Each structure stands twice: as structure tokens, then as C-alpha cells.
Amino acid sequence: MSIRDVVYQVYENSLSRSLDRSRLPRHVGVILDGNRRWAKTMGATAADGHRKGADKIGEFLTWCDEAGIELITLWLLSTDNLSRDQKEIDELSEIIVTTVERLAYMGHWRLHHVGDLKLLNEDHQRRITEAVESTKDSDGAMVNVAVGYGGRSEITEAVREFILTKASEGLNPEEIAVAVSDTEIESHLYTRGQPDPDLVIRTSGEQRLSGFMPWQTVHSEYYFCEAYWPDFRRTDFLRALRAYEARDRRHGR
User: What is the CATH number of the domain that holds 99?
Assistant: First the structure.
């Protein structure tokens, strides 16, 4: 181990010890961005970048375990991603499904799918469903795997389900309109019953949410990191937690 590595390790450990565990987020959302740009800098293919990014996920979840994070949402495949070249989409989807299966096989985390599985082919739908189901008795942190997820689509689907539910109860259009409320819409979101994200981390230097949980993140804290997702380090994560801990969260008050 080089002198630089030793100094880095000392700094990382000091950063970890300095955190006030009572002030850390319960729910961390992550926009895993930069796989393709990382691959380009390495002279590799987009698929190589996606594989490298997938390899980072288990490591990241271990860091979350160490920090006591109860719920993690990983945005793995957006609805916008599905408009890319079909060959890349096929490769990316297979990498993501294999990653979800690998996480399930480890048997530690409880997986929950967030998104529209119908956007995937039947084989991938089945494999994700089976992987998620196999973790229902796991006692580790809950991990939302957002695959085929888009924020606008989620809200649209929640409203649609709300209308259909009320119509099945015999309500007319006017009564349905009166029944609309934040609570009713929230009860039809993919994340119903879960706490909203306290902290959202986006890698790659982009400073926007790109449709990540627009309903749930109205009071979230954001942390934008310059590193591409494959290069995201434990130190970067600890810095995000430190930045969150230092903020005065007023929730709009």
C-alpha cells in the first residue's frame, strides 16, 4: 500500500467517525449516472461501462449498511433510457436483471421493484419478479430497484389507479374529483408505505433530477458528485452524508 493510499484511508476513517449517526438519512436515493461517459474515457464500450457500474452496486450497499441506512433507492433504468439504440438497451437490460438477481442471491437485502415492468421483455419481467419475491423474508435494509422508472409515468399511473379504484367503488366523476387528495395519490405510488427520500445523490456532475421521484423528493436534500458512478468512492458517499448532516432541514417551514 502506497503512502497516498494510507493517507487516504486515514482520512476516510476520520470522516466516518466524525458523522453523527443520529442525524443521518433513513432513505437515500441514488441516480447512478455516468457509466457510458466513464467507458468513453477508458476507450471501452457502453456495455463495459454498465457492467463496471453494476459491480459498484453491491459495494455501495455495503457502505449503506455500515452507515445504518434503512432504505435505498437505486435508479437503474429510466423510461428515457429505453429510447436508446436497441442493442445497447438489450445489453443494459440484461446487465441490470443479472445484477438484481445477484443482489437477491446474496440474501441480505429486501428488494422492491419500482417502475413499470411491462416495459421489459417477458423473460426480464419474470426474472426480476422472481428475484424480488425471493427476498421477502430478508432482514436487511430495503432496496428499491427502479427499473423502467419515470417520475411522470409513476404519477400518471397513480392517478389512473386512483380513478379506476374509485370508479369500481361506484363513485361518479364528480365524487371522484372531490375524493382526490395528496394522501390518495400517495397510496397509489410505487413507493406507497415508504418514507420519502431524505437524501438524493447524483453522480457524474449533472445537477438535475431528470424525473427521479418528483412527488417524493419535494423536501429531499440533494448532493451532486463529479465522479462518474463507476468511480464513486466510499469517501464520496461519506461526504454526501456529512453534507446532509450539516443541513438545517425545515421541510418548507
Answer: 3.40.1180.10
Distance CA 6, CA 19 (A): 21
Q: Which residues are catalytic?
A: 33, 81
Condensed to tens digits (0 to 9), the pLDDT of residues 17-53 reads: 889 888 999 999 999 999 999 999 999 999 999 999 9
Q: Is pTM, for the whole model, over 0.90? A: yes
C-alpha cell at 144: 428499491
Please report whether residue 157 resides in a domain: no
Task: List, for residues 209-218, the tens digit of each pLDDT value.
Answer: 999 999 999 9
Structural domain count, the chain: 1
Give the DSSP per-residue string, 129-169.
HHHHHTTTT--S-EEEEEEEE-HHHHHHHHHHHHHHHHHHT
Length of the chain: 253
Angle between helix axes 86-106 and 122-133 (nearest 10 degrees) is 20
